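Protocol step 4 of 6: structure prediction from sequence.
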Amino acid sequence: MQLGYAIEDSPYKGLSFLLQVNNLFDKSTVNYKSVGPNAPAATALYPNYTYTFGRQTLLGMNRWF
């Protein structure tokens, strides 16, 4: 998600702000692996590894002259 705001009028003309959030809901990613040919259902999958990345928040400010 990314939000931006620029000031057009006032003594702060040319000032802009930016807020960016990556992985907003901090959702994990799961890697699945095949059970193998000896399983009752050959296409069955089971969780192999869960990746958790965390939320990243960035805040920026620019000034144009």
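Step 5 (inspection) to follow. The first strand starts at residue 2 and ends at 6.
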